[in-house]
Amino acid sequence: MKKIIIAIDGHSSCGKSTMAKELARQIGYMYIDSGAMYRAVTLFCLQKGFFTGDILDRKSLEKEIQNIRISFVKNSETGQFETFLNGENVEKAIRSMEVADKVSIVAAVDFVREAMVKQQQSMGLEKNIVMDGRDIGTVVFPDAELKVFITASPEIRAQRRWKELIDKGEQTTFDAVLSNLAKRDSIDSSRKDGPLRKAEDAVVLDNSHWTLEEQNQKLLELYRERC
Ligand code: CDP
After folding, report:
1. Each residue of 151-207: pLDDT tens digit?
2. Which of 1, 151, 158, 183 makes the best surface tag, with the fewest CB within 10 Å?
3. Is the whole model's pTM more than 0.70, yes or no?
């Protein structure tokens, strides 16, 4: 079977990672969550005190950017890949609302994107990879054999993310999650480098009313058509 690259982009919290992870598992591909990398850089900035409100100390971050090492390590119990920042498991910490609140500010910084895109491209050298994010089909892998752009209505996305956070024990409200998604989508879509937009050759999927089973089937069909 042909080895391909699968790029999945879309709005915040539309279930990209769930879809991408399940597809990768079914076809035996590696899954990379590019958003986790921007979240890890954001956690690093918060830990180092680089934020004053929404103002980021870019100079300090620029000095440190080459010292930020992000890797994905398979958890042998769950079989899932977890995010490590400079050797420390940060999988849980990067999913907090505190990180979600600042991540789009960090992800809009040109030298951060440059460093992350370079790392992402080197992960795709062997193909056999599913990567999800905002600029995967447009900037990271413009030649990807399969590009998917996923969306769903803002209320449905906020409902899904709110439930996920509550289940993990995070104290937050539906309105806080909805406004975080709107803020991130707006920054992500309007930034200069690697803005969130559909690649011309991407297949658009709106999964607002699909079950997990239906969305997995749809992705599998698209994959089989390309191989
Ligand atoms: O919360 P959700 O799963 O939708 O987002 P994520 O995939 O974890 O990504 C978190 C944030 O990282 C996004 O809101 C973007 O600001 C940024 N990001 C990006 O700029 N480029 C990517 N390829 C992936 C994520």
Report:
1. 999 999 999 999 999 999 999 999 999 999 999 999 999 999 999 999 999 999 999
2. 1
3. yes
- Report how far apart the first and last C-alpha atoms of the chain are (Å, whole number): 6
Q: Which residues line ligand 1 (CB under 6 A)?
A: 12-13, 17, 34-35, 38-39, 103-104, 107, 133-136, 184, 188
CB atoms within 10 A of CB 225: 9
Give the DSSP H/E element, type plus range, for residue 129.
Answer: strand 129-133
pLDDT in tens, 84-95: 999 999 999 999
Cα→Cα distances 172→158, 161, 168, Å: 12, 11, 11
Q: What is the pLDDT of residues 1-24, one digit of tens each?
A: 889 999 999 999 998 999 999 999
CA angle (112, 113, 118) in 5-degree steps = 105
Give residue 163 CA to ligand 1 midpoint distance, Å: 19
